[in-house]
């Protein structure tokens, strides 16, 4: 019985991650095509837009975007190298070791346009019946 339960959990989890990976792929390709944004860049803009004063220290973005410190630093640097003016780096005046990245008004406009695409892709890509069925399976497995 326990072996069967473990197998059910694994199969359900794999189905859920398969759906998530397919949707992430759709989001990535649409954001790149329509807005020249990777999914990680979209998340970076999104998290900055939600932060107080629309700025965060680079180390704060690590866990939010799901990247290491060096990868976040490279992501911000690559984004700035595009020259679109969406981000601005600032050295912290009280602790010069810290670097802030802030969202500019250009970045906010870029994010607002990309959010429309993001939501359109989610509405089309989310498999209502499959996802609902998977979530029900997970709940039933938890009750066993």
UniProtKB/TrEMBL annotation:
<keyword id="KW-0238">DNA-binding</keyword>
<dbReference type="InterPro" id="IPR036390">
    <property type="entry name" value="WH_DNA-bd_sf"/>
</dbReference>
<protein>
    <submittedName>
        <fullName>Transcriptional regulator</fullName>
    </submittedName>
</protein>
<dbReference type="Pfam" id="PF12802">
    <property type="entry name" value="MarR_2"/>
</dbReference>
<dbReference type="InterPro" id="IPR036388">
    <property type="entry name" value="WH-like_DNA-bd_sf"/>
</dbReference>
<dbReference type="InterPro" id="IPR039422">
    <property type="entry name" value="MarR/SlyA-like"/>
</dbReference>
<feature type="domain" description="HTH marR-type">
    <location>
        <begin position="1"/>
        <end position="143"/>
    </location>
</feature>
<dbReference type="InterPro" id="IPR000835">
    <property type="entry name" value="HTH_MarR-typ"/>
</dbReference>
